[in-house]
Amino acid sequence: MFRVMQCTEVQKVRFGTHMLDEEADDWWISLLPILEQDGVEVTWAVFRRDFLDRYFPEDVREKKEIEFLELKQGNMSVTEYAAVIPSFWT
């Protein structure tokens, strides 16, 4: 959606945070003035960093990455399966 609308980095924050609900919305509403007070331009990268730190910390991301890489499709790993798929479509 952001590409189609050719959003600026600041517009992405406005549109993306509009979709937040309940606790996440409360969190963002309380964090935004703090970020703006420090003179930080609140871009999509700033929002994404803070959102991921809050709701999907690095240690959880690493565990999920390992979990994903250990998934099996039949008797193949995800990596092996992904390597086969492109040849299927050609």
Quick structural summary:
It is built from six helices and two strands. With 90 residues, the protein is mainly α.
Keywords summarizing the entry:
elongated, mainly alpha, 6 helices, 90 residues, two-stranded antiparallel ribbon, 4% strand
- How many beta-strand elements? 2
Tally of distinct domains: 2
Helix content: over 70%
Low-confidence stretches: none
Structural class comes to mainly alpha
Largest sheet, in brief, is: 2 strands, antiparallel
**Residue fraction in strands:** under 5%
Evaluate the radius of gyration: 19 Å
In DSSP terms (H or I, runs of 4 or more residues), the helix count works out at 6
Basic shape: elongated
Spell the H/E element sequence: HHHHHEEH
How would you classify the quaternary structure? single chain
Question: What gap, in angstroms, lies between the N and C termini?
Answer: 29 Å
Provide mean pLDDT, rounded: 86
What can you tell me about this protein's structure?
This protein has 90 residues and is mainly alpha-helical. The chain is 72% helix and 4% strand. It has six helices and two strands. A hairpin with a 2-residue loop joins strand 1 (72-73) and strand 2 (76-77). The model has no long low-confidence stretch (mean pLDDT 86).
